[in-house]
Task: inverse folding
């Protein structure tokens, strides 16, 4: 057991390189695992895995599960579980598909591809997710029915509510503007992607400087300047590298020609353009930022973690843990709706089986990302990395040509192994988590 | 004589058919330490939980400074400056000291976000006073020793200027030196005019720390004594047999043919 240094007088001597940087070693481990997976598959596929095209696809394939995984962190941290997210996604998707192909064009008489269709559909979807999530949260929080049972019931109910609503039909094509959330059909383009990168770097530098200022103002020990600068440089390089990869995936000439024609222009000779950041990934990034702020910087987030750590202590501190459960499941429901937007627009139609098995992928992503089922522990970025690791395993094996049953066997084993490694890690670091 | 700081009149609480607290009336004056004694299951903790808002009462009235108080949840109790230090410490193990100290009453900045730096600074100040050896501000409290955890729980009560402090076996999990620390703290808080209700098993300690003591048995009040006027054996007799010594004020639970 080592005491953290407190006195502001003497700056603490960093024990080693990593402790001076004060970065989460668990985060490093997960990034390391992701890099190893990428390198191994890149080797096995003769370099086809780490092409801009494949990495681009990887991000849009991850988005839907990752969006839900951020909410699952809150659910699991409060010692609950949600088995209904895949089914809830289907119900939200069905509601939105019906809104944009039937309700708005026919009932309201707006016709197809009206600019108002997309916002209305999104609103309907989010309300659906919010209401159903809150209802499940109320059953769990106020009627004290175990979350496992309520959401197991929800798993059956919402999948079949979606079926009932659509009479089992596939509904599509979806509204053109709505399809922008689908990934390849909606990207920022090169210029706006670079602008996003600049904004993201400026934002993270501001956050780093602000945090250092606060520490100095309260006379807390701060990291050495070189460590802060190095972290800033790593963040900037990561953002730039990420955007550079997405920009390097070029739009095929035929498609580019159609895009220029749609704008009434002619494609100039020799012009090439990259796809850039997909809007679905932008949505994921915004959700990660918002959810991280909620987790770390709001009372709601503090209460979520306190309740997960010791529900009785939280109640004695005057926290309304029942209402908190409703809020957590309402957030989860909203995120299912947003994931439904991304998932249905990616396939350009609503289908009966949309989101099947997503509940397991989402739970696995959160758990691989270090969320403890016992409650009280978990991070948003961990869950997103967990989703990315699972998706890269799955699509890497598909590229190598591993048969479907073996793919699932590997993913299942990785889940168990990841949790075991996490247990070992916690045991080794003791309380210094 | 001024009105008591706290008066609990005719408090009743049942669980199923069992009367955990059966028409108990006790009071507490400023600057006084009053013990609440009894066997396990005598109803002391339940009585205190009704005052701290952790349990809703079935009957009875609570008066604070002579005025009727509505205490229905922990937040109400906190508004009356009632703080509780629980036997099992009521800390969220996964959070650090500052988060626990301010749990439910987080300090926020102008934009409404939780101000962790300010809370840590305040926590450092108050703990420097209570327990100068406390160093571990960034670890979850699960990694702290019993005494350090107790410091956090006590700091919570002191920081928010408790007028009424309920201590449920505050030294049960502590070593000799830490027990001494708590005893000194009780003396200090008492001198500041804070009223303390102390639940304890250790009669020796009650005799040392308390001014008066209430003894409970089977949910009923056996009697109230001034600790200086009775012997430890007298109090033991009250706890075990419900037998009141002559200089005690007997309650409804006193042995009738004594």
Result:
């Amino acid at each position: 057991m080592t005491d953290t240094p407190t006195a502001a007088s003497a700056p603490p001597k960093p024990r080693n390189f990593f402790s001076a940087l004060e970065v989460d070693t668990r985060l490093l481990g997960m990034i390391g695992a992701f890099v190893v997976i990428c390198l191994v598959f890149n080797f096995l596929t003769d370099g086809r895995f780490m092409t801009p095209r494949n990495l681009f696809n990887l991000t849009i394939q991850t988005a839907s599960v990752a969006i839900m995984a951020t909410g699952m962190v809150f659910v699991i941290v409060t010692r609950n579980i949600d088995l209904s997210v895949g089914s809830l996604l289907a119900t939200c998707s069905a509601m939105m598909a019906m809104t944009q192909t039937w309700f708005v064009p026919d009932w309201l008489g707006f016709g197809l591809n009206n600019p108002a269709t997309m916002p209305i559909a999104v609103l309907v979807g989010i309300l659906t997710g919010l209401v159903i999530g809150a209802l499940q949260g109320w059953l769990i929080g106020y009627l004290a029915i175990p979350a496992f049972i309520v959401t197991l019931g929800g798993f059956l109910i919402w999948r079949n509510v979606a079926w009932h609503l659509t009479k089992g039909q596939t509904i599509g094509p979806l509204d053109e503007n709505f399809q922008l959330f689908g990934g390849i059909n909606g990207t920022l383009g090169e210029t706006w992607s670079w602008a996003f990168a600049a904004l993201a770097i400026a934002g993270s530098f501001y956050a780093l400087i602000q945090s250092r200022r606060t520490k100095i103002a309260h006379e807390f020990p701060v990291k050495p300047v070189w460590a802060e600068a190095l972290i800033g440089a790593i963040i900037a390089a990561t953002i730039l590298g990420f955007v550079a990869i997405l920009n390097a995936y070029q739009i095929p000439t035929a498609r580019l020609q159609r895009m220029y024609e749609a704008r009434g222009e002619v494609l100039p000779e020799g012009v090439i353009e990259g796809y850039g950041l997909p809007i679905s990934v932008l949505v994921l990034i915004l959700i990660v930022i918002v959810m991280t702020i909620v987790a770390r910087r709001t009372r709601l987030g503090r209460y979520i973690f306190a309740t997960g750590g010791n529900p009785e202590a939280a109640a004695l501190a005057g926290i309304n843990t029942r209402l908190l459960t409703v809020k957590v499941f309402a957030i989860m429901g909203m995120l299912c709706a947003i994931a439904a937007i991304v998932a249905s627009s990616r396939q350009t139609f609503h289908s009966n089986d949309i989101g099947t098995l997503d509940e397991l992928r989402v739970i696995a992503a959160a758990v691989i990302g270090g969320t403890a089922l016992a409650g009280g522990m978990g991070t948003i970025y961990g869950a997103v990395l967990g989703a990315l690791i699972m998706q890269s395993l799955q699509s890497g094996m598909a590229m190598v040509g591993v048969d479907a049953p073996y793919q699932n066997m590997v993913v299942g084993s990785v889940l168990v192994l990841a949790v075991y490694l996490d247990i070992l890690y916690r045991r080794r670091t003791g309380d210094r988590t | 004589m001024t009105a008591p700081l706290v008066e609990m009149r005719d408090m009743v609480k049942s669980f199923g058919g069992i009367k955990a607290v059966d028409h108990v009336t006790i009071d507490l004056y400023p600057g006084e330490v009053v013990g609440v004694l009894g066997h396990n299951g005598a109803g002391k903790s339940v009585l205190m939980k009704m005052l701290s808002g952790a349990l809703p009462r079935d009957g009875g009235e609570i008066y604070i400074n002579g005025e009727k108080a509505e205490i229905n949840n922990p937040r109400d109790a906190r508004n009356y400056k009632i703080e509780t230090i629980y036997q099992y410490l009521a800390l969220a193990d996964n959070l650090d000291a500052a988060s626990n100290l301010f749990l439910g009453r987080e300090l926020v900045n102008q934009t409404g976000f939780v101000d962790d730096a300010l809370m840590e600074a305040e926590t450092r100040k108050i703990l420097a006073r209570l327990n100068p050896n406390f160093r571990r501000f960034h670890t979850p409290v699960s990694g702290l020793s019993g005494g350090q955890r107790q410091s956090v729980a006590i700091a919570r009560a002191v920081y928010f200027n408790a007028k009424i402090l309920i201590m449920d076996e505050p030294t049960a999990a502590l070593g000799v030196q830490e027990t001494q620390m708590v005893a000194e703290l009780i003396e200090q808080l008492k001198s500041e005019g804070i009223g303390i209700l102390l639940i304890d098993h250790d009669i020796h300690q009650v005799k040392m720390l308390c001014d008066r003591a209430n003894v409970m048995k089977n949910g009923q009040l056996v009697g109230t004594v001034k600790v200086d006027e009775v012997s430890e054996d007298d109090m033991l007799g009250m706890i075990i047999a419900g037998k009141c010594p002559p200089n005690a004020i007997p309650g409804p639970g006193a042995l009738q043919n004594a």
